[in-house]
Amino acid sequence: MRRVRLTGLFVLLSTVLVLSYSLAGPSPAYSGGGPMVRVLVSFQQTPGPDEAALIESLGGVVRHMYEIVPAIAAKMPPDNLDELAADPRVTSVELDSGAWALSEVTPWGVVRIGAALVHPQNKGAGVKVAILDTGIDLDHEDLTVAGDVTFVDDTTSGDDDNGHGTMIAGVVAGLINGIGVVGVAPEVELYAVKVMGQSGWLWWSDAIKGIDWAWKNDIQVVNMSFGGPNEPPRTVHNAIKRASRKGVILVAGAGNLGDEGYPDLVFYPAKYDEVISVGATDETDTRVITSSWGLSLELVAPGANIYTTTIGGYGTGGGTSLSTPHVVGAAALVIASGITDPAQVRQRLQETAYDLGLPGRDDEYGYGLVDAYAAATP
User: Fold this and answer.
1) Has 140 been annotated as catalytic?
2) In this model, does residue 8 exceed pLDDT 70?
3) 321: annotated active-site residue
């Protein structure tokens, strides 16, 4: 709305300027009955006392006399702009306009879990986080990718050709750089591990490759915003158990079948004991109706109307895909706070979660809403 009002003001002032030029003869002296307007007055030569006197004689106020260009910034009575422009020393009279400061948004989910309160002293610096997904937009202005790899046929890098992985990455690690969005842990070392192609389809064999790469490269937290209701090949679980024993914290979305009304519809791999399963809540701390729930659910996090990065820009999404990276970012903040043992990190996230639903752990909200501030503050 503020931009609309500014545009309207510019149109109004431009109309005043055009109409004033249509008047014949000199303008009357300014009586103070209306607002002054800001103008840039350009001259044939570098302005001095005479040019300043011209502006003042027409009721104006000199704001600044430039050296880099032959011009004066001034405030002028609108009724006297035509007379000022008619002076032979003046080459142009332009309305002073403006621009908006480039700004960034801290999405409601980052605020709700208290991550913004942690940022003054802890932004997750140095913690290695891998996004196992469709890749990440490697050229995005609001993301710094420390490394990338692909396990998808006919691709050569971890660059995103679908968009899903870039959305996940923004929730975890959107930079504090004056533009776009702020992530939960904006200074983590972010890795794009491409295990899904343009269609968004994942072969479990490629997921195993991504998990294998993560533990071999000392990744501390892995985001897996993918899954399905049917149990995958046993080899997948074996790979997850191996990575977990090596100290990798694995976090996955619980799935989006909650509206089916059946209990324990948590997806794999979130359903595995070694994985932190994450459900989705909305702005009222209520479970998103499609968010899967059941015995395996561990935590919930914001997963509705989440503003985040997209390929080449920004957009809004929802579901457990976007609740998962909130927990991943929170885990990174806990590690950066000095709690580095994976089991202790997981316990810390459980113990500090904001209890929702029935008292204590329940099947709809798990241990509750992840609380990055409580978890990462000693």
Assistant:
1) no
2) no
3) yes
